Amino acid sequence: MIVAIDGPSGTGKSSTSKAVAAQLGLSYLDTGAQYRAITWWMLSNGVDVSDQEAIAAAADKPSIVSGTDPRQPAISADGLDAAGPIRTQEVTAAVSAVSAVPEVRTRITELQRAIAAEAGGGIVVEGRDIGTTVLPGADLKVFLTASPEARAARRSGELKTTEGKPVTDLAATQQALTARDKADSSRKASPLKKAEDAVEVDTTELTLEQVIECVVTLVEKAAARKAEAEPVEEAAR
Ligand SMILES: Nc1ncnc2c1ncn2[C@@H]1O[C@H](COP(=O)(O)OP(=O)(O)O)[C@@H](O)[C@H]1O
Ligand SMILES: Nc1ccn([C@@H]2O[C@H](COP(=O)(O)OP(=O)(O)O)[C@@H](O)[C@H]2O)c(=O)n1
C-alpha cells in the first residue's frame, strides 16, 4: 500500500502522514526533510546556494539517510543528525533554490523510490511531487490545501531562527511561505502540483484530528479496492 500526500507548506502533511502511518502500521517518509538535509549539508560545507552549477556539482556528495518509523522520524547527512538544524530559518530560506536544481531532484527521487520499494508493509510518503513524479502509481494520492492565513498561523509558532529563538511575525511568515510556494510551483523540474487522480482535501476549517480521520478512511477504501482488484490481476496472468 503506497500513499502519496502532497501539498504546500502548513497544510498538515507531516502531522497527518505520521499519524496515519502510525495508526495503520505503515512506514513513513518525509521527503521535505531530505531536501532540507541536503540544503543544510550544502550550507555547512561552503557550497554557494545561489549558484546552480555549484549545487548541481555537489548534489551526489552527501549521504542522506532517512528513518521510516512514523513514531521516531530521523534524518542524517553524512552521519550527522540533521533533525534540528534542518528546521532553521536559514535552511527554510535556501531549500527551494536547492530543490529546484534537476541534479538534486534526480538524486533525491532515486533515494525516495528505493525507500518506498523496500517498505514491505506499505508506506506513507509526503512531499510536493510524490503523486505526480516520484510514485505516480501510488495506491492513493491526497493533495492537502489550506488558506495562506491558516497555514501561516499554524507555522508561525513553530519556526526558529538560527539562534533557536521563535519567529513570531505572522505577516513575515505568510510572506515567506507564499514566496516558497511560488518558487516550488513554478520551477521547471517536478513542480508542486496536484496529480490529476489525487483527492483534494481543504484543511482550513478542519482540526488535525478530522484530517487524520478523513485520510485514514481514504486509505482504508483504497486498500479495499486494491484487495478486490488483485485476485483479478492474478487470474489474468
Ligand atoms: N488541520 C489543522 N488544524 C490546525 N493545526 C494544524 C492542522 N494540521 C496541522 N496543524 C499544525 O500546523 C503545523 C504545520 O503542520 P505540518 O503537518 O508540519 O504541515 P506541512 O507538513 O504541510 O508543512 C503543525 O504545528 C501542526 O500541528
Ligand atoms: N517532494 C518534495 C518535498 C519538498 N520539496 C522542497 O523542500 C522544501 C521543504 O519541504 P517541507 O515539506 O519540509 O516544507 P514544509 O511544508 O514542512 O515547510 C519545499 O519548500 C520544497 O522546496 C520538494 O521540492 N519536493
What does the model show?
- The chain is of the alpha/beta class and 237 residues long.
- It has a single domain (2-236), classed as P-loop containing nucleotide triphosphate hydrolases (Rossmann fold, 3-Layer(aba) Sandwich), CATH 3.40.50.
- Helix content is 51%, strand content 14%.
- The protein has 9 helices and 8 strands.
- The protein has helices at 13-24, 31-44, 52-58, 89-99, 102-118, 130-134, 148-156, 170-186, 208-236, and strands spanning 2-6, 27-30, 64-66, 75-77, 80-81, 123-127, 140-145, 199-202.
- Strands 2-6-1-7-8 form a 5-stranded parallel β-sheet, sandwiched between helices. Strands 3-4-5 form a 3-stranded antiparallel β-sheet, with helices on one face.
- A hairpin with an 8-residue loop joins strand 3 and strand 4 (75-77).
- The radius of gyration is 18 Å and the shape is globular.
- The two termini are 21 Å apart.
- It binds adenosine-5'-diphosphate (ADP) and cytidine-5'-diphosphate (CDP).
Annotate the secondary structure layout.
Blueprint: E1 2-6, H1 13-24, E2 27-30, H2 31-44, H3 52-58, E3 64-66, E4 75-77, E5 80-81, H4 89-99, H5 102-118, E6 123-127, H6 130-134, E7 140-145, H7 148-156, H8 170-186, E8 199-202, H9 208-236
Parallel strand pairs: 1-6, 1-7, 2-6, 7-8
Antiparallel strand pairs: 3-4, 4-5
Bound molecules: adenosine-5'-diphosphate (ADP) and cytidine-5'-diphosphate (CDP).
What's this model, at a glance?
Keywords: ATP-binding, Cytoplasm, Kinase, Nucleotide-binding, Transferase. By secondary structure, the chain is of the alpha/beta class.
